[in-house]
Input
Amino acid sequence: MREDEDMVKLSMRSIGDFAVNRICIDHFDGGGHLQAAGGQFKGSVQECLKKLESVMPEYDDEVRKAADRLIAQGYVLK
Output
C-alpha cells in the first residue's frame, strides 16, 4: 500500500493460482493479472487495511485450496 494525497494505491502479488485480481476488482476499483494486480482506496492506509482485513474472509476457501495445491507440488509455505 502507498498513501497518496487523497487515496491509497494497492499492489498485490500471489503465488500459485490464487487470483489477487479478484480482490482488486471486487473491492478496490482495480484489476490486473491472476498473480499481480492493483487497485485504489479513497481514505487512509489504516482504513484501507481495515477494509482489506474485513474482505479477506470471503477468499478463505480459495486461499486454502491454492495453498493445498502448492503444498502438493512440494512448496513449503510459512
